Amino acid sequence: MGCSSSRTMTEGRKEKIRRPKTWKHPQPISRAELTQMGEEFWDTAPHYGGKKEIWDALRAAAEEDDLSLAQTVIESAGVVVQNADLTICFFF
C-alpha cells in the first residue's frame, strides 16, 4: 500500500478568518481592566512556545478591524488557521 495522493501541509488550508464569538467575563470589568488583560496575554504568550514573530502577526491580525488585511497578515506570516476565529493556529 502507498500514498494515493499527497499535498503540502498548507495546501488547501486557506481558511478565511472571521471575528470570534462574543466573549463575556464572568465578573463585570472595566474597559481598562480588559485592556490590561489583553496586554498581559500578549506579553506572556511567546513564553509558552513559538516564535515571537508569529505571536506578533497573530496579535496584529486579532487587533485589526479590516478582516482582509488581517487575512493578509496571517497568510504572510505563514500561519495555518485551523479555526476561522484564530483560536487554533499552526506554523510550520
From TrEMBL:
Residues 14-89 form the DC-UbP/UBTD2 N-terminal domain. It comes from Brassica cretica. Residues 1-26 are annotated as: Disordered. This is DC-UbP/UBTD2 N-terminal domain-containing protein. It holds the Pfam family UBD. PANTHER family: UBIQUITIN DOMAIN CONTAINING 1 PROTEIN-RELATED. Residues 15-24 have a biased composition (Basic residues). InterPro entries: DC-UbP/UBTD2_N, DC-UbP/UBTD2_N_sf, UBTD1/2.
